Amino acid sequence: MKKVGLPIIISAPSGTGKTTTCKRLKQRLPNLKIATSHTTRKIRKGETQGVDYFFISKEEFESKKNNNDFLEWAKVHREYYGTSFEALDKHRQNGFDILLELDIQGVNSLRNMDFEGIYIMILPPSIEEMTKRLKKRGTETEEDIEGRLKTGKEEIKDYKKHDYVITNFEVEETVESILAIVRAEKSRVARYMPTSEDIKELLGS
Ligand code: 5GP
Known about the structure:
By secondary structure, the protein is an alpha/beta fold.
């Protein structure tokens, strides 16, 4: 039987430290690949085309959407974001676990299609802290920050849509919690795959 990777869906309000957490997580999990999303938003300083996102125009996004290239897509903070089937399947078919960083609309879409994965929400310790982190980042206008805060507060209310919720007090601690969740989830009996022909024979599967 072919081993297919496990999707790990992480969502978090803007200013929660999700990007840093996901980067550290990737360093700790060699079997993890990130499903790079497409977005119409402008590239930020320090971001790389095709690594952080595929930055595309609204027309290109529309055309991909009409082509049914996206597993899910959403309009977030006035821009479009989407996970392509290609980004998801490229590595998953080779047994790699896949990290999907989504907003709450993306989580809802996947839940509605019974998409199998581990759903984890990362929360800030407080709204005050979230505001501070957003302002410190210095990549958004005052208006964008206000919008992200408003959306973030709504997203927090939806925490029960996830399987796990972690408060990001400190990034290393958060990464450790995610690692513990992933290890436990991968050890579920339902996900067990015989590792050799003799065990497979013994189990009669
Ligand atoms: P940012 O502009 O800060 O990189 O991302 C804004 C929000 O869009 C974040 O909550 C991020 O997780 C979400 N996001 C990024 N890629 C996707 C995607 O492919 N689909 C959905 N639904 N949300 C995404």
